TrEMBL record:
Pfam families in the cross-refs: Arm-DNA-bind_3
Species of the source: Azomonas agilis
Family (UniProt): Belongs to the 'phage' integrase family.
GO BP, sorted A to Z: DNA integration
Record keyword Metal-binding present: no
Keywords, in A-Z order: DNA integration
Name of the protein: Uncharacterized protein DUF4102
The organism's taxonomic lineage, starting at the top: Bacteria, Pseudomonadati, Pseudomonadota, Gammaproteobacteria, Pseudomonadales
Integrase DNA-binding domain residues: 20-96
InterPro entries per UniProt: Integrase_DNA-bd_sf, Integrase_DNA_bind_dom, Phage_Integrase
PANTHER family tied to this protein: PROPHAGE INTEGRASE, PROPHAGE INTEGRASE INTS-RELATED
């Protein structure tokens, strides 16, 4: 479907699925700052436009379509708008969450490496190449 043919907002999932890519990326307003983005390669996703505490406009992605349906995107957008009204910047919150997750992952790798290294640094392992590389 061409985007000129959209008559109702919020858009139904059938309309979202039928939107065709164009030469340039475009966004269709679904309502209350929630946009549906269509890329030239056919990728589709949801974005919310909001004003930060400093007064600048910003975008935050809510997820790709069809993984995130229209109803779920609207629900997420409502929750984010509520957080924004309470003074929470969703992008800063997401970055903090990702940093904590990376620190946890690094810690897990460190623990596994510390357990593995003494086992592999024994003399038998270093002297006998077949134990390291397998039989030749």
């Amino acid at each position: 479907m061409q985007r000129k043919g959209i008559k109702r907002r919020p858009m139904a999932d059938a309309v979202l699925a039928s939107l065709e890519p164009e030469l340039k990326e475009y966004r269709e307003l679904d309502g209350d700052g929630l946009y549906f983005r269509v890329k030239p390669d056919g990728g589709k996703s949801w974005q919310l436009r909001y004003k930060t505490a400093t007064g600048k406009w910003s975008w935050i992605g809510l997820g790709g379509y069809p993984d995130i349906s229209g109803a779920l995107a609207r629900k997420k957008a409502t929750e984010l708008r509520h957080s924004i009204r309470n003074g929470i910047d969703p992008i800063a919150q997401r970055r903090t969450s990702e940093a904590n997750q990376e620190a946890t992952q690094a810690s897990l790798f460190k623990n596994v490496a510390e357990d593995w290294l003494p086992h592999k640094s024994g003399k038998a392992y270093l002297i006998n190449p077949s134990s390291k590389y397998g039989p030749t």
